[in-house]
Amino acid sequence: MTIVTKSSYVDGAFVALQSSNELLENRNPSNPGEVIERFVRADRDLTEQAIAAARRAAPGWARSNPQVRADALDFIGTEILARREELARLLSREEGKIVREALGEVDRAGRSFKFYAQEVLRAEGEKYQSVRAEVGIDVFTQPVGVVGIIAPWNFPIAIPAWKIAPALCFGNCVVFKPAELVPSSAWALAEIISRAGLPAGVFNMLIGPGRSVGDTIIRSPDIDAISFTGSEGTGKQIARLAAENMTRVQLEMGGKNPLIVLDDADLEQAVDVALNGSFFSTGQRCTASSRVIVTAGIHDAFVARLAERTRALKVGEALAADTDIGPVVDGKQLEQNLSYVTIGQQEGARLVCGGERIDNQAGAFYFTPALFTEVHPEMRIYREEIFGPVLSVLKVHNYEQAFAAAEDTPFGLSAGIVTTSLKYAEHFKRHSSAGMVMVNLPTAGVDYHVPFGGNGASSLGSREQGTHARHFFTRVKTTYQLA
Ligand code: UN1
Fold first, then answer.
1. pLDDT for res 420
2. Cα(22) to centroid(ligand 1), Å
């Protein structure tokens, strides 16, 4: 089969290929010998060109007819949903999540565009009386301008969608950098956007490395705002560099999300919630539950049942219908998972099951979900984000101890509780410092139309998604007028 070479999208066109171009190979983690597609790597120059094109397009797009924006977003959403099977299979091949999960992700992406197609036309603005007689006050919002969007590899289409859709909706131009591990879904999305009738320069996509493309976006005085999802280290660096130009930032970083299981929980429900939140999508979600805090009365039964269910999960090829957990995204992430398993054992935790690489001919990055018990709160496996299917169980004696343990982290993205007690559920919803709280539901897996985000080391800036996205993608203008 011939391998296609694709390129970035700048100023209304896909960039022409040249023989001197540096190439990036997109490989399938279920079969690393297979190259899905090749991509020409963008460099600093091309990034500057994309930013300049976005800058030129910004004034016109900011004043564009809202109906034009609504129609464009609706077109993109409709096509994504119509091609869901094809896009989901492509996503599974490049990222490794199973097709069922990829379908859910593609639907979420399509629906985000559909949501913002509606949001464009919502009334906005406020009127006030002034404290000075004869003065009227109007408050309204305007686009921020040119937005840099830097997306991670773990949600190759949904995260780009939930950042790009509101950016365009609120009248901004976009310079989008997908993660180099997942360029194919990003390219497919850009190709759809390229046919949505947007003026040249409104949307640009650069496939290339963080050290050149990302760095140019972050340092550019012509970028007005940066929306980033990725690691804490990169997020901090973006915040530091963006401060030089007073660029607005929205950062979604790590998590070490707790799930509390109380004695009064329904055992089967608790196991379902833990299994899904910790291991599905190969644990590669910033919202994954990587710490389960269990009260003593249910602890042993919970661990026994969870171990049984964990052992029964089938790890394998992402595209196979009977696979529960696909491969880890690449060799580097696999090494990280394995090294945390060793660390956990050295720290004295008990590895109940999993935590091993599965040998296979294709060299696929298969890793069995790992369950640790006898964990102490100071252990690294309990404190640090692993970003893989590695779960630590902490035993406590009551809700108060469970709550204190859940709160004992610098992160604050998502937190869950499994209980039949209204009192504890209410207390947890009210007092948890996480940005998202789940009762009898996994910590991961969120809706597309409500605020998404966390606190502490997990997030900086205003919330993503839903109507709240407006706060990041617009500026507020207050006008005073003498009658
Ligand atoms: C989800 O749990 O449904 O990178 C979404 C991440 C998050 C998205 C999680 N920003 O994992």
1. 98
2. 31
Model's pTM, two decimal places?
0.97
Site to substitute for ligand 1 among 256, 287, 438, 452, most atoms within 8 A of C-beta: 287
Give 320-349 pLDDT, tens digit per residue: 999 999 999 999 999 999 999 999 999 999
Residue with tokens 């091993």: 356
The CATH code of the domain at 5-253+458-482 is: 3.40.605.10
Query: Residue 297: is its pLDDT beyond 90?
Result: yes
Q: From atom 6 of ligand 1, which residue's Cα is the shortest distance away?
A: 286
5: left (phi over 0), alpha (psi -120 to 50) or beta: beta
End-to-end CA distance of the chain: 72
Round to whole Å and give the CA distance between 354 and 214.
36
Q: Which residues line ligand 1 (CB under 6 A)?
A: 152, 154-155, 159, 229, 252, 285-287, 444-446
Q: How far is the CA of 444 from the centre of ligand 1 (A)?
A: 7
Q: Give 230-265 pLDDT, tens digit per residue.
A: 999 999 999 999 999 999 999 999 999 999 999 999
The domain segmentation of the chain, as residue ranges, is: 5-253+458-482, 258-439
pLDDT tens for each residue of 121-164: 987 899 999 999 999 999 999 999 999 999 999 999 999 999 99
Return all residues near 340 (Cβ < 8 A) that are at least 6 apart.
Answer: 380, 381, 384, 386, 388, 390
What's the mean pLDDT in 110-124? 94
CA of 253 to the centre of ligand 1 (A): 10
Over residues 396-411, the mean pLDDT reads 98
Q: Which two tokens stand for residue 104?
A: 């859910």
What distance lies between CA 379 and its chain's CA centroid? 26
Q: Which atom of ligand 1 is nearest to the CA of 414?
A: 2
Fold equal for 5-253+458-482 and 258-439: no
Count of Cβ atoms closer than 10 Å to residue 182 Cβ: 25
Q: Which fold has domain 258-439?
A: Aldehyde Dehydrogenase; Chain A, domain 2 (3.40.309)
pLDDT digits (tens, 9 = 90+) for 162-190: 999 999 999 999 999 999 999 999 999 99
The active-site residue out of 286, 317, 385, 464 is 286
Respond yes or no: is residue 252 known to be catalytic.
Answer: yes
